[in-house]
Amino acid sequence: MPIETPVAQLDPGKGKTRKAYLWAYRSNDLEPGPRIIIFDYQTGRSDRHAQSFLENWQGHLLVDDYGGYKALFAEKQTEPCTELACWAHARRKFFDLHLANNSPMALEALQRIGNLYTIEAEGKDLTIAERQQLREEKSLPELEALHDWLMKTRAQTANGGGSAKALDYTLKRWANLTRYAQTGHLPIDNNPVENVIRPIAIGKKNWLFTGSERAGKRAAAIQTLFGTVQLNGLNSSDWLKDTLIKLPTWPNSRIDELLPLPPDYIELLKKNN
Question: Does pLDDT of 267 surpass 60?
Fold first, then answer.
């Protein structure tokens, strides 16, 4: 689950700042294993940053509709990723529409999408196999009914307005929006990574800018460590204290053992790299 947020970077000699970006990549909560969040600081929002970071990584990638991710799913790619779309983003289109003019159409869309989330809440504590069965029995029929309603509603909606745009957004990304329901391990939205990056978005109002690209990359590394600590239910202060005590005499060949991840998972990472 990647997402990016703009940050201000000091532009030496010009007395002002330039726009840089903090990219965040988060693991999937519905799959076994520890939780990981990685922050990657870059000076731009170009698609080459995501491509460079992921390199030959394969798997399902849940993204919004930002064009910078499209190259990752291109058929000409040797090892393309599989795209998932976010229901929270689709829902937001209808939420904004209903907020603006109390649209009955938007309200019905919100209720229908809400049914999908009710099913997800029901399957929260199930195994992957059990969740897949639940989605087959409930989510897929709900999605089929929603698609029929969207198509009929769009046929009766004039082009160009907010209603048409909300409907078109969902219909255009339909295949990617529904892919999660064919499995028991893929998430319905990318809210988890948005929740992780939200404190940084709020914190920008306090620290205002990074002093340089180098400083931004260091901050991203620190945020990666503390973010992963918190995702795995560890105490940040205890982990930092323990790490700082061990660090001066710790052998470089075993430095990864100080990461906030279980030892068996670190061994797995070594084998795969």
Answer: no
